[in-house]
Amino acid sequence: MARIINKAAGTEVPRRRVVAGLLATAAGVAMLAGCTSKSDAGNQAGAATIQLLNVSYDPTRELYKDINTAFAKQWQAQHGQSVTIDMSHGGSGKQSRAVIDGLGADVVTLALAYDIDAIAQKTKLLDPNWQSRLPDNSAPYTSTIVFLVRKGNPKGIHDWGDLVKPGVQVITPNPKTSGGARWNFLAAWAYGKKVGGSDAAAQKYVSRLFAQVPVLDSGARGATTTFTERGIGDVLLAWENEAFLAQNELGKGKFDIVVPSISILAEPPVAVIDGNAAKHGTNAVATAYLKFLYTPQAQELIARHYYRPRDPQVAAKYGNLFPRLDLVTIKDFGGWQAAQARYFADGGVFDQIEAGIHH
Amino acid sequence: MAGTLAPSRTGRVVLMVLAFAFLALFIVAPLVAVFVEALSKGIATYGAALVEPDALSAIKLTLLVAAISVPLNVLFGLAASWAITKFDFPAKNLLITLIDLPFSVSPVVAGLIYVLLFGAQGWLGPWLEAHNVQIIFAVPGIVLATTFITFPFVARELIPLMEEQGRDDEEAAISLGASGWQAFRKVTLPNVRWALLYGVLLCNARAMGEFGAVSVVSGHIRGKTNTMPLHVEILYNEYNFAAAFAVASLLALLALATLALKSILEWRYGVHGKGHP
Hints:
The complex is a heterodimer. Chain A is of the alpha/beta class. Chain A folds into two domains: 142 residues, D-Maltodextrin-Binding Protein, domain 2; 150 residues, Periplasmic binding protein-like II (D-Maltodextrin-Binding Protein, domain 2). Chain A has 14 helices and twelve strands. In chain A, strands 2-1-3-10 form a four-stranded mixed sheet. A four-stranded mixed sheet of chain A has the order 6-7-5-8. In chain A, strands 4-11 form a two-stranded antiparallel sheet. In chain A, α3 runs parallel beside α4 and α5 crosses α6. The longest helix of chain A has 40 residues. The radius of gyration of chain A is 25 Å and the shape is globular. Chain B contains 13 helices and no strands. Chain B is globular, with a radius of gyration of 23 Å. Chain B is an all-alpha fold. The two termini of chain B are 35 Å apart. Chain B folds into two domains: 31 residues; 228 residues, MetI-like fold (Orthogonal Bundle). The interface between A and B is large, with 54 and 53 residues.
């Protein structure tokens, strides 16, 4: 008898129970979604406080902390409106992917043009000609790739050739996810090509180089931490700004910077993501924010954070800080579209090199 | 009797010393290191790291996420384990397998599933966009990912116990005239209360500590979509080690509190004979 009751109950009660649970879940999610949509949908143009989201690459954390404070002050003085700038940092490629997947960036400040091109191609959020909208290819500062070695340079590393000596461990992030690492890769390629005279020689050199890399972090900051804090590796291929930061502020007296004979001119660009800014009503303030980066005040902050300023006067003032060296540019690689397709796309040169190392 | 199977006295001592040495090396030492590092710049820095606005927002978000996902999973876990152990229905094994799915899927994949579904390029992306609903890179996405990851904890705790307890008590209650709801509330629930609490604790610990899946759907906006584990990573990447470990120590404290509560529950559990009053 109990069995019969049980069967009967089995068809009704538990099903109702499960359904109730599912409904509660759905209701909870819907409620939350409702909350967010309300707060996000508001057009902020006339509001007393305005919010911007700057999605940036890894090593710019300290820079934008200062820039944001300075810009907020200026905007408040000129428009009587307070502006707060939210930051998201990560490997440049990863950040670009997040914006493509719907991270609501008003502006992006990434490590290389390709990552912003990708946003323009995969979404309709900004004009494909975004790079001509601001001066200097939309890159308010430049940087380059240098070496950071341990104090006293115990492994005697002076140029790219020394990196492939036996027993030298090289730290660089993964070119698949990190913008800095793609600049690293191309700078190494430029050296290999200069010395060997051909692309084949360059590929051979870069293969030997990556065979000496024990860990590939996903972003530049992770790689710096691996080198400086975890003490792994003999040399870090780093953004110049990141190398200065490590040398002067992290481990004073623990590291030396080595400037190689040849490197690459890195132009980290910035852009307003028009589609998002229009939705948030932040077009004007987002554009002003990026233009602010070109003012002497911001250029000064840029130089103080060890990025190479564009402004000639500021550049002259900080000229001693930045050594002159032979710099190739992305144009030598046919631009980012070509370089990305050839070296970093799936099955590209980097993948071939990695496959060669692991077999 | 003890001679053949049990190890000798020296053997036992050696085994115990080994076990404790292992525990000390792999569990206690790292835990101590977290607190030592957290307090390395003094108690004032420690306190400042925890009340700093971004840290506070991360703590609040973590609590909010746990406060939503844990009750949902309690409801689901109870419903599922009740259905599975007390009734027979088709596709029961399928349901059991589905409950275990989040255990076997990597958290990163779990996060990506939601990006694929709700991301701007995802299946539902355009519809959500048109209705101005943001799920990924906002709080709902974080709640969804956490709920998915912590799905099995309560059910997995309850199912073996309820299976062991059988259906006799409920059948007796129903044959004496109780309704299904009464049987559940007055018979099933009291029988499993300790196991349920234990499941809630585990579920909560994981909900607050989850990193991988949340990292994928968070967008890492400081002060907005960072949970405590993500905030620890950010601080660590900013060379702010004392602050990173201060927030990490909060998570560690949570783990210790969970452990203590778990021990108490296990003791009660044991005394009450696997939950039977």
